[in-house]
Amino acid sequence: MTSPQNMSTNETVDHCKTPSNVTYKSLSWVMMGEFALGLPLNLTVLYIFVFRFKFWKNKSIFLFNIVVADFLLVACLPVKIYDYQHNMRHSNNKVVCKTMLFMLFLNRGASIAFLITLSLDRYFNVVHLGRRNFVKVFKKSPQISIVIWLLLLPLTIPTMVTTFECCNSHGRQVETVYHDVTDTFREIVFFTQIIIPFTILVFCTICIVNRLRRKTVGEKTKLRRAVYVVVSVVIVFSVCFLPSTVARAALLTVRLTGWQKEEDVAVQVYDSLMVLSYTDCLLDPLVYCFCNSGFKDVYVSTFCPTFLQKRLKTSDSNMATTATTTTTGNRTISLPMIDK
């Protein structure tokens, strides 16, 4: 019987090649659909934020940064499509391979960072009424967004080293301690950038829902709108990020046991769920609509035909501009349901 170590370091296995051509050809067509939908969607959203909505005046700098991250993600899809169409999990060109992994790490981290920041802002607005909201102060400063992007750059360093095979080698033959540490650090970054933010997100969501149910006085439709803001972010995480994270953990477990056949299956599941995670660029506009009614109104009036505008512009546009009040002691505090 072949030992796990021998199987995990099998020199005859090309880990850059796809274990199933049919699976990856199908995934390439899925990504073509994501690209065909995501490119015009994100271009139109960028147009609205820059030329019509003027994000720097509407306290939507964080939303704009999510749009930028999504657009960069969409721009990476043609390279992934090309690789999958040619039966390669990653490009056999090391520069292209590392550049793609760098971009995916950076854009994924940026989307998560700004989504969590929005959720924290909603948390402080609802749960800690009357207290200074430091996140709201950050939202008005474009410099803070630049700092967030710069802080994400060190987390992409493991993607630029030259020690890993086909951009994905943890659990394979380890020649040096440097090799092992680098790959381990990359995996730690991959998991922590999902697990920690998701924990924060769940905490914020639970606190917000409980606060609105117990303390806030107002119409049910207004309360639902406030909850939708944070729940929409939870949905994005649950659909786009969590499945691929679980699949990654399963893949590493199987790989470390040295079972090549099982690893081939786990690789296909992981890559399929990573393709699913790219739908982030299609789901984020829903978050924009819940976070800011102005975005929805401007987008509909700009790109939707007249007959659709009448259906899409519902009475909730007036609801969004109103405020719900809650009484804290002897004070009445205004609670804005969404940002203007």
Write the layout of secondary structure elements.
Layout: H1 4-8, H2 21-52, H3 61-85, H4 94-127, H5 134-139, H6 142-152, H7 177-214, H8 220-257, H9 260-277, H10 280-291, H11 293-303, H12 306-312, H13 316-321, E1 323-328, E2 331-336
Antiparallel strand pairs: 1-2
Helix pairs in contact: 2-3, 2-11, 3-4, 3-10, 4-7, 4-8, 7-8, 8-9, 8-10, 10-11
Protein name: Hydroxycarboxylic acid receptor 2-like
Transmembrane segments: 29-50, 62-81, 101-124, 144-164, 188-210, 226-246
GO molecular function: G protein-coupled receptor activity
Number of domains: 1
**Sequence stretches where pLDDT stays below 50 over 5 or more residues:** 1-12, 315-340
- CATH H-level superfamily: Rhodopsin 7-helix transmembrane proteins
Q: Which CATH architecture? A: Up-down Bundle
What is the helix tally? 13
CATH topology: Rhopdopsin 7-helix transmembrane proteins
Structure class? mainly alpha
Outline the biggest β-sheet: 2 strands, antiparallel
How many distinct beta strands?
Answer: 2
What is the share of helical residues? over 70%
Please indicate the percent range of residues in DSSP E strands (runs of 2 or more): under 5%
